[in-house]
Amino acid sequence: QAMDAGLFERVWAEVGPYLLTTSLWAWGEPLLHPQLKDILRIAQTQPVATLLSTNGQTLARESVIDALASYPPTYLIVCIDGLTDETNSRYRAGARLAPVLEGVHLLADIKRHRGMDWPILHMRYIVMKHNEHELPHIEGFARQHGFDLVTLRTLLIIDSTAARHSDLLPGSNEF
What we know:
The protein is of the alpha/beta class and 175 residues long. The protein contains 6 helices and 5 strands; from the N terminus they run αβαβαβααβαβ.
């Protein structure tokens, strides 16, 4: 369940002055928070670097763009795990790239027109067996779609053995 903005404001007033960074998500999709704009507004009352991580499926919604443009987090981490719908949805079941990229383009345009530094549009890519062939194209893809930063991640297996996920583990030992 999402934290109520009133509770967040009370907690933030107490702990915010002692923080350097904060991650505004936890095992859920933060852009679905019904009080997203209020949460981001409250977060800006303290000089804390804010990180927001999303699968981006609702990123192009008008209310989401309004919240992110009005009270931008320091980093907006957008998780894309394939450069096509086919490779991206292999791990992110049902995900489509169109709403993600539309939202990133909208935010990049807003940043440019308003001369904003934030949010830093950060593309995060988990390297897996089915998408590692796309590695040579990731930087160009990120630039083309308006991202400021791209990082590659390894697959984190926390709930079972690596054998259970062998179909996802990349061939390269680097990842």
